[in-house]
Amino acid sequence: MTHKNLQVEAIEQGSVIDHISPQQGIKILKFFQFNNKNEKITIGLNLPTNNGESKDLIKIENLFISNTQANQLALFTPNATINQIKNFKVVHKYKVKLPTSFIGMLSCPNSNCICRHENVKTTFYIQKNTTLKLKCHYCEKSFDRTFFNELY
Ligand SMILES: [Zn+2]
């Protein structure tokens, strides 16, 4: 089987997350726990792309990525595309997109933050200047993504 076949091999129903930045495929599997759902998963790592770079790719049968998941995916891999497959056909294809905020997804890296000690849903606002930062609603500190254990 060539790389090309592996990338286009059809699934009957489910999702294909394509154009995942290299090194992110495994982290995404872990974060979303796709592998705990007993569905068939095909994962490709460091697959060659047409422009000579490489990408990861994840195919999950019988699972459709929710909008929330698509937003969360953008934190791992800003240029990924999601293909929704039904009856062996791509019925919907879209790019992941960063939302303006993340609620209840990440815990605050600031150990003094009130959200670490009270039962509240964490809220982070996306700040996009030269690098991506997430600003905590509660302590108002900004962190880049390397501060969040959940993303590694
Ligand atoms: Zn905080």
What's the short version?
With 152 residues, the chain is of the alpha+beta class.
The average pLDDT score comes to 91
Structural class: alpha+beta
Ions, cofactors, ligands: which are bound? zinc ion
The H/E string reads HEHEEHEEEEEE
Overall tally of structural domains: 2
Percent of residues in helices comes to 10-25%
> What is the overall shape?
elongated
Total number of beta strands? 9
CATH topology of the largest domain: Alpha-Beta Plaits
Explained architecture:
The chain is an alpha+beta fold and 152 residues long. It folds into 2 domains: 3-95, Aspartate carbamoyltransferase regulatory subunit, N-terminal domain (Alpha-Beta Plaits, 2-Layer Sandwich); 101-151, SH3 type barrels, CATH 2.30.30. 16% of the residues lie in helices and 36% in strands. The protein has 3 helices and 9 strands; from the N terminus they run H-E-H-E-E-H-E-E-E-E-E-E. It has helices at residues 3-8, 25-32, 67-76; strands at 13-20, 41-48, 54-61, 81-86, 89-95, 101-103, 123-128, 132-136, 142-144. Strands 2-3-1-4-5 form a 5-stranded antiparallel beta sheet. A hairpin with a 5-residue loop joins strand 8 (132-136) and strand 9. The chain is elongated. The model has no long low-confidence stretch (mean pLDDT 91). The structure holds zinc ion. The site of zinc ion has 8 residues, from loops. Zinc ion (ZN) binds next to loops.
